[in-house]
Design a protein that fits this description.
Layout: H1 2-18, E1 43-49, H2 53-68, E2 71-77, H3 79-87, E3 95-98, H4 101-105, E4 118-131, H5 138-143, H6 146-149, E5 157-159, H7 166-178, E6 185-186, H8 189-197, E7 203-207, H9 208-213, E8 218-219, E9 226-233, H10 240-251, H11 253-261, E10 265-274
Parallel strand pairs: 1-2, 1-3, 5-6, 5-7
Antiparallel strand pairs: 3-9, 4-7, 4-8, 4-9, 4-10
Amino acid sequence: MRLRRVLPILFAAAILAGCGATAPATPAKPAAPTASAAPASGTVSVLYAGSLVNMMEHQLGPAFAKASGYGFQGYGGGSSAVANEIKGKLRRGDVFISASPAVNDTLMGAGGGGWVSWYLTFAQAPVVIGYNPQSKFAADLKAKPWAQALAEPGIQVGSTDPKLDPKGKLVADLLSKDAPAVKPQVFPEQELIGRLQSGQLDAGFFYANEAAEAKIPTIRLDRAPSASYTVTTLANGPNPAGALAFVRFLLGPQGQALLKADGLTVIVPPQPTGAVPAGLGG
């Protein structure tokens, strides 16, 4: 009886041995996912120069969200004002886009709180004079030298605060050299276009890209100062992986196409300052 039980087992073993069968291998453990393979998750908070508000909110932000799977949340304001909010821990973000490299310098090192350790200068835009075509001063603005036209009695001219916005600083330096008689009123950057279009202002100083997208007629300046747009990631941001993904998108083919369509002059390759993370250009 015992022999009859053992024989089938021995017979099956012999067949397996003759066929060259081996014991099944232990399944390999799946490789741990790499950072690049990690799925997009969460929202990327981008703090940016107010002169980019239309492009960021209606073109670049939505395009990034669609292409990457991350959410996008933007906040625009005067670059220096936003930097002050970052330093004062009044506003938290993942990415900071400024209209002046000097603003980034105020966030670097121990004195700046260590919020920024690098940045890339990726685009430029000249300052222009925009005017309301319905203004009674429109004809003079088109026909006379700009410094003379902007100094006429009763004309309402707008700019931004030199202490809070790089554009205001560029304009103040320009006027001190070329048109000291011109004394513009100061408004937040995000309000200037609306005030001009509503007729509260006859003329104002804008970057060429923001005037173009708002379809504001402009007067070009012979020695126009320019914005130099920079991008960086902020220390201790809530979504560091998303921040790097946004910078890669901004500097990539789709981001650059949107920048050019907005009237910006793209700098290729972007100019690096500090220890830029690998793979971000520069």
